[in-house]
Design a protein that fits this description.
By secondary structure, the chain is an alpha/beta fold. Helix content is 52%, strand content 15%. The two termini are 21 Å apart. Strand 3, helix 5 and strand 4 form a beta-alpha-beta unit. The chain has a single domain, classed as TIM Barrel. An 8-stranded parallel barrel has the order 1-2-3-4-5-6-7-8, surrounded by 7 helices.
Length: 282
């Protein structure tokens, strides 16, 4: 078994929708919600972008049919953003409308910093029309505090993460301890807003800081959730869910797992260390 196949078996739910749903059912039984991500990015064919949107719509219909607890997460470069913002808007609108028809939710993932402004502008457009769309903010980016203030003002749900892309110092905080400090600052802004936000982290220090701040401010567990990646710190996931915290697991699946992991591992040594740290943990 090659290294990437080994990685895929641990951190990717499978190549098919059926394999992904098997993972969803197991996590649902443990009291965890899930979000499904069909792997792929930087699509430059409008036909392929349209087909991927159709796959997401089928996925949403299947979630309803199978009665599992899952929503979807997607990247805009899957949906034609590299070709046209307007095409991307219309293509993703089909997915959001399909999700709304079933009372479901769509998370717009955040990619590299060159896409941040365009992504947020599209999210704002969708949020003016739909109430079942949210996005992601990366604590490593210097602009993120201002973006969270704007998102809170618009009542848009945010997933807060640290960020996994290699970014220049002019746009991103470089030192780990400074990223952590900004993460905690942004977490507090999110929890204080009254909007249901998601704190995405595997860092025990960030989890503890969130729990302590919520307790200090009297913010109930039902007002926010934690999010973690599939296959990462599985024992910690069970522990958090068992303590009554909302927990959503991000489940990637599909045939494009090799370029996904190769790009991430090549881009930042921190990603290699993160994967290595969790590879053999429960």
């Amino acid at each position: 078994m090659g290294l990437f196949t080994f990685l895929a078996k641990r951190f990717i739910a499978g190549e098919t929708k059926e394999q992904a749903f098997n993972a969803v059912r197991k996590l649902n039984k443990l009291g965890m919600r899930t979000t499904l991500d069909i792997l792929g990015e930087n699509v430059t064919s409008l036909e392929m972008a349209r087909n991927l949107a159709d796959s997401y719509i089928d996925l949403i219909d299947s979630v309803e049919r199978e009665k599992v607890t899952a929503n979807v997460s997607l990247k805009l470069t899957q949906m034609g953003l590299d070709v046209s913002d307007d095409y991307c808007y219309e293509n993703v609108s089909r997915i959001i409308e399909a999700a709304r028809a079933h009372g479901n939710f769509v998370r717009i993932d955040m990619e590299g910093s060159k896409y941040t402004e365009r992504t947020l502008r599209l999210v704002y457009r969708w949020a003016e029309k739909y109430d079942n769309v949210g996005t992601v903010i990366q604590a490593m980016l210097r602009r993120s505090e201002a973006d969270i203030v704007e998102l809170n003002g618009r009542g848009i749900k945010v997933r807060l993460c640290k960020g996994a892309y290699k970014e220049p110092a002019v746009v991103a905080i470089q030192r780990k301890e400074d990223v952590n400090a900004n993460y905690i600052k942004l977490m507090k802004l999110l929890l204080d807003s009254g909007v249901f936000h998601s704190i995405a982290t595997h860092d025990n220090a960030m989890i503890t800081a969130t729990r302590e701040y919520a307790l200090l401010k009297g913010i109930p567990k039902t007002n926010y959730e934690f999010q973690m990646l599939y296959g990462i710190n599985r024992s910690g996931q069970v522990e958090l869910a068992g303590e009554g915290y909302g927990l959503l697991i991000y489940i990637p699946f599909g045939t494009h797992w090799f370029p996904y992991y190769y790009r991430r591992l090549r881009e930042r040594k921190e990603n290699v260390l993160f994967i290595a740290k969790h590879l053999f943990r429960d």
